[in-house]
Each structure stands twice: as C-alpha cells, then as structure tokens.
Write a structure and sequence with these properties.
The protein is an alpha/beta fold. About 35% of the residues lie in helices and about 25% in strands. The chain contains 8 helices and 10 strands. The longest helix has 21 residues. The structure holds adenosine-5'-triphosphate (ATP) and magnesium ion.
Length: about 270
Amino acid sequence: MDENRFMFASNLQKTYRKNAISTPVLKGVDMEVAEGEFLSVVGASGSGKSTLMHLLGSLDKPDVGEIHYRGRRIDNLSAEKRDYLRNHDFGFIFQFYHLLPELSALENVMIPLMIRSSAFSWLGNGSKARKRAVTLMEKVGLGHRMNHLPKELSGGEMQRTAIARALIGNPALLFADEPTGNLDEDTGREIVELLRELNEIDNVTIIMVTHNLEIARGTHRIIKLVAGHVEAPAEQQPEIFGLVRPDGIENNPGVQNPPDDTRRQAGL
Ligand SMILES: Nc1ncnc2c1ncn2[C@@H]1O[C@H](COP(=O)(O)OP(=O)(O)OP(=O)(O)O)[C@@H](O)[C@H]1O
Ligand SMILES: [Mg+2]
C-alpha cells in the first residue's frame, strides 16, 4: 500500500533550460527509500545526483513524475507547504557546509529554528532552542567548539556543525550530498560513522550521495544513476558486510559480488 511507503519517486524527469540550450538530466527515475534506511546514491559527475536530491528534498520541482512521502504526493505542493515540509521533516547536509561565517557554530545550528519562528515567539522559545542546539553540538562531539566561528573550525568540525544544524528540526529524512567530499579519508569516515549512528540509534532515514565506494558500501543499499535512470538495482549491490536493511530484508540475498566487480559495476 502506498500509504505505508516512506518515500518513493516514479518517472522523475528534469531538464534544465537556459537560453536556447536544454540539458536533459533525469529521464525517468524510479526509486524508493524505506523508513530507517541508509541509502547511497552514486553515479558519474554530472549524472544528476544533486538534481535528484533537490527534487526529493522539495528544493526544486520535476518536469514530469511524482514524489510521494508518507502517504501523500509532495512534488505538486504549494511553495508554502514545501517550505513547511523542508523545515519540519527534512534535513540537508552539503559538501561545502554552507555555514554563515559571521555566526558562531552554535548560532549556525540555531538558524533553522530562528527562521521557523516569528520574532515574537523567538522571545519565548529562544532559550529552549539554544538548549537544543547545545545538546546537538554535544551529540556531534563539538561541545568544546560552540563559540568558534566557522573559520576557526576544521573541515570535519564544520561538517559536524552542519549536521547538528540539519538535525535541529528533528528531521525524519536527512539528505546528504557528498558530505565527505571535502574531507580527508579519516575525517570522512568519522562523519559517515556519525551519520550511521544517527541512522541506527535515532532512526533517521538518510539518502547520501557519495563518490566514495568504500563509504557507500557501509550503507544499507546503493543506487546508481546512469544516463538519466537508476541502473537496475539487482545488478549492482555490493557485498553487504553483514548489514541488513531495516525492513529485515537482506540486500540481494545470494548476490555477493567480489570487490573488484563492485568497483567496476559502480563505475568508480
Ligand atoms: N541550474 C542548472 N542549470 C543548468 N544546468 C544545470 C543546473 N544544475 C545542474 N545542471 C546540469 O545538470 C547536470 C547534472 O547536474 P548535477 O549537479 O545533478 O550532477 P551530479 O551528479 O550531482 O554531479 P557531481 O557529482 O559533479 O556533483 C550537469 O550536466 C549540470 O551541468
Ligand atoms: Mg552533485
């Protein structure tokens, strides 16, 4: 039943048009993410991964196709309802953190709540918001860096701050677009470990774009964008490292590709 599915998209198509030039990017994407799942999206540069995230996250609209979330269609909502959904259900993490340079780490984390509330209600709720931001900063391991400006933080610390900011609205679904793309390998691994904890302990569903196959293989499932479509999933599941999807279904039981094969299939 559709009402019980967490999020799915069917026949998503998106063409960017600028002057007389049109760039078809998504040509009929079908995909789904289950509640509690940690899904990776891979694909060559320019294959439309960020475009897909923008559509799923209600930051942009598809030309054709539908997106359903928790029993309702969301791609055709009014701008106001999409804003509400983004603020209350979704969180976003990007490769370049997008922190405001003049605000402290803690203040950056509080921004979504400030935007959400009117000046009046902020007077009443500001200290509650601050407390929650402090709790989240501690959760991401930055209790000792709360008053630092972004330029006084390392890349990993900036990304942790961005993760805390993404969590402040208590999202059910987190979109992470190359969250480790700007970090060294060890720091990247730590960030993914943090995402994994959020997924496993706090039951946050995560869709993560990555170019790093090792990192993708640490998630529940991988989908790959090729030529505007999702490549047939049964073909590309890597070793599952004992991970079981939250719905209890093992990824492709019986399909255990050797690593080299995986690398070739994912085109990485
Ligand atoms: N706003 C836009 N206007 C015009 N073309 C765009 C726009 N955004 C993206 N594109 C084009 O659409 C294609 C897909 O872009 P997208 O950013 O989704 O790719 P990607 O898979 O995320 O790539 P990368 O791995 O490099 O981040 C690219 O060819 C890009 O140039
Ligand atoms: Mg991208």
